[in-house]
Amino acid sequence: TFQLGERKDELDLNDGFVDNTKRVRAQRKAPLRIIIGNPPYSVGQKSANDNAPNQRYPNLEERIEETYVIESTATNKNSLYDSYIKAFRWASDRLDPQGGIVAFVSNGAWLDGNAMDGFRKTIQEEFSAIYVFNLRGNQRTSGELSRREGGKIFGSGSRTPIAITLLVKKPAQQSPATIYYHDIGDYLTREQKLEIIRGFGSISAMRDTLTILKPNKYGDWINHRDEGFEELIPLAPDEKFTLDPHSFFTVCSNGVKTQRDAWCYNSSEPALAANIQKTLDYYDQWREKLITLSGSKNRSLPPEAYDSTQISWTHALKTDVVRDRENAYDADGIRSALYRPFFRQHLYFNHALNERTYRMFDLFPTPKHENLLICVSGVGVTKNFSVIITDVLPDLELIGKSQCFPLYWYEKREQTEQMNLFDTDETYTQRDGVSDFILGRARELCGPKVTKKDIFYTVYGILHSEEYRKKYAVNLKKSLPRLSLPETPKLFWAFSKAGKELAELHLNYETLPPWAELKEDSPKAKPSTRVTKMRFAKDEKGENKTAIIYNDDITIWNIPLEAYEYVVNGKSAIEWIMERYQVTTHKESGIVNDPNLWCDEHNQPRYIIDLLKRIVTLSVETMKIVKALPKLGL
Fold it and tell me: Which of 104, 70, 68, 111 minimizes the C-alpha distance to 87?
C-alpha cells in the first residue's frame, strides 16, 4: 500500500508483469472516498540482531517530515515514523480531494504522546471533523495506572492503548476540525470494553456521549498541562555545560544506554568480565573475516554474523566492525551502577559497548571521581513522575528515560593548564553542577551562608512534594521539571533539610537498620539465604503483601502496608527488590545473572534478605518525610 505512493518510475513494471502493471495504474487513478483499516504499529526492529529494519518509503517519510515532524516541539520524534502514523499520512494524502473519510482502529498512543503534538495539530488542520473513541488498554504502565487502563483490546498480542478514529474531510469547510471524543472509562476488562463497543454499534449512536475537545496551544487534546509551569525556572539549561545559564543546573545527562544490558550488566564481576571478553573475541573474529571477505571497500556483515548467543549488534558496533576499528577489553571499564531502584550492578562502562554514554564520562570520568546525581523521569514516560538520587552510574531506565542532574561535573585539563591552589586532581577540574544564577537567587532569599549543596538538597526535597507532583502531573510527563525557590527562608531550609534526609536514606539504603517489627520464619535450623525468585504469600483474599516468601526455607512477615506507599518508577521499592533480586537467564544469549553471586563475592550471605528488610525501613521513613513536607503554596 505504501509503495503505491512512491515515485512512478520506481513502480513501472516490465512486460512480464502486464496484469500487475494495469492493476497498479488503476489503483493510482481510483478516487478513494473511504479508507478503512487496522494499520500495524512498529517504530522499528527491537534489536539490530534481528537484521530486519523497517522498509523505507522516502516520499511518505518526506511528507511526515513536512507535516507532523515540523509541527512537533518534541526532541525525539522517532515515534512519528511508526507504521500506523505512516498509514494516517498515506491515507490523508490519498483521500479524494473532493472529500471523504479515513476510519482506523489503531494504536491510541497518539492521543497524548509527547512527540505526537505535531500529528494532532496537523490532522486538526487537514480535516473538518474528527471522531475518537479511546479504548485505553495501555499495559506499558504498571500498578494503579495499569489497572485503570483495563483490558487489552487485542488480548495478549497488544500492550498499547487502542483508539477508533474517524477523520472526515469536507473541502468546503475551512476552519480547523471539530474534535468529538469519548473515553471508554477506567478499570474495565477486555470483555466489558467489547460489550460497550457492541452496544454503541456506530459513531452516530454515540453522539450523546461525545465530548468536544478544545486543544490548547501546545497541541494537548486530553490531559492539558498547567500553563503556569512555563513561568517556573527550568532545572535543565538550554545549552549544556554553560557556566551561567538561567536554570538550576549547568548540565544534565541521560543515564547510560547500553542496548545490550544482558552483556554489559551483571551481579557477578567475573561473569561480567567473561561475557564482555566473549563478545569482543567474536567481534574481532568478524573484523578480521570482513577484511578477507570484502577487502577494504563495501564491507558489511553477512547474515551468519548475527548470532545472539555470541554478540548483540547495534548500529554503533556495526559501524565499528565495518571500519576495522579495534575494541580492546578495558579492565578499568567495570564500574558500579544503579540499574533499577535499589538494585546495584556491575557495569562495563565503555564507549564501544555502550550504545550511548551521553555525558556520563563528564560526571564520572574515572572510578575515583565522586558525584551525586538527582535522576528524574524523562520526557514522554507513561508512569507517574518520580525521582531518585545516586552516587554511582545510573542506567537510562533507572527512573524511566532518566535525566540526571549532577552536583558536579568534570572538565579534562589541558596539558598546559596551570592547577590552582584548591585543585587536587592533575587531570580533571571539578565544576559545579548547580548554577551561579540560582545560587544568587537563593542568597538574595536566605543570605550569604547558602551553598550550592543546600540548593541541591532543596531541589530533591521539592521534587518529592506530593503537592508539586499533583499540580504539575501532566507537565512532568511532557517536559523536564521546572521549579521556583520556596517563597520564604523558612520554607527553603525546611525543604533543604528534608531533601538531605531523603538523600541520606536513598544513598545509604544498604546500611540502614532492618525494620524492627519484621518477623523471619523458617522450619529449618540453618535455612538457606539463597534466592531464586521472591513472591507474596497468599491467603483466602488472594495476594497478602504483609508476607513475602523469600525462598523455600524463609518467609518474611509482618510487613507494614504503608511501606508500599513509597513508589519510584511505577513500583514500590519493596517490589523492585522482589523483581530484580532473582536468578534470570537472558533468552537470546543464554547469559545468567545470579544475584547470589554478589553475596558470595562480597562475603555477605545475608545481603539480599537483609536488603529487603532495610528497604522496608527506607520506605516507611521516606513516606514520613514526604508527608511532613510543608505546603509550597502553588
Answer: 104
Backbone torsions φ then ψ of 71, nearest 5 degrees: -90, -10
Rounded to 10 deg, the angle between the 452-462 and 489-507 helix axes is 80
Do 266 and 405 contact (CB within 8 A), yes or no? no
Cell of residue 624, nine digits:
514520613
Kind plus residue range of the DSSP H or E element containing 412: strand 408-412
For residues 48 and 388, the model is more confident at 388
- Name the DSSP letter for residue 59: H
What is the residue whose three cell numbers read 472509562?
185
Smallest Cα–Cα separation from 499: which of 385, 398, 622? 622
Helix spans in 227-337 (H):
261-264, 269-294, 315-322
* Distance between CA atoms of residues 271 and 597, nearest Å: 9
Q: Model confidence at 337, in pLDDT bands (50, 70, 90)?
A: very high
Average pLDDT over residues 311-329: 93
Sign (positive/negative) of CA torsion 458, 464, 466, 468? positive
Residue 425 has what pLDDT? 63
The bridge status of strand 535-539 relative to strand 519-521 is: unpaired
Residue 489 parent element (H or E): helix 489-507
Residue 385 CB-density burial (10 A; 0-12 exposed, 13-18 middle, 19+ buried): buried
497 pLDDT above the threshold of 90: yes
Residues 211-225: pLDDT tens digits? 999 999 999 999 999
Residue 410 is predicted with a pLDDT of: 96
What residues contact 330, with CB distance under 8 A and at least 6 apart? 350
C-beta of residue 476 within 8 angstroms of C-beta of residue 610:
no
Are the CB atoms for 46 and 314 separated by under 8 Å? no
pTM over 0.70: yes
How many angstroms separate the CA atoms of 549 and 557, rounded? 8
Helices (H), 95-189: 117-126, 143-149
CA atoms of 456 and 449, how far apart (whole Å): 14
DSSP helix/strand/coil, 343: strand
Q: Considering the chain, what percentage of its residues have pLDDT values greater than 70?
A: 93
CA distance 465 to 443: 23
Cα separations (Å) of 219 from 166, 305, 443? 19, 45, 38
According to DSSP, residue 256 is labeled B
Query: What is the Cα–Cα distance from 336 to 322, expressed in whole angstroms?
Result: 31
Q: How many CA atoms lie within 13 A of 186 on its CB side?
A: 5
- Grid cell at residue 204: 452516530
* The predicted structure's pLDDT at residue 145: 77
Residue 302 to residue 51: CA distance in whole angstroms: 10
Mean pLDDT taken over the chain:
91
Let me know: does 114 contact 379? Beta carbons within 8 Å: yes
Burial of 443 (0-12, 13-18, 19+ CB in 10 A): middle
CA 239 to chain centre: 22
Ordered alpha helix ranges (H), 324-367: 360-363
pLDDT in tens, 247-294: 999 999 999 999 999 999 999 999 999 999 999 999 999 999 988 776
pLDDT tens for 42-68 read: 766 656 666 656 688 999 999 999 999
Task: Provide, rounded to the nearest whole percent, the portion of the chain with pLDDT above 90.
Answer: 77
pLDDT reported for residue 42: 74
Q: CB-based burial of residue 545 (10 Å sphere; 0-12 exposed, 13-18 middle, 19+ buried)?
A: middle
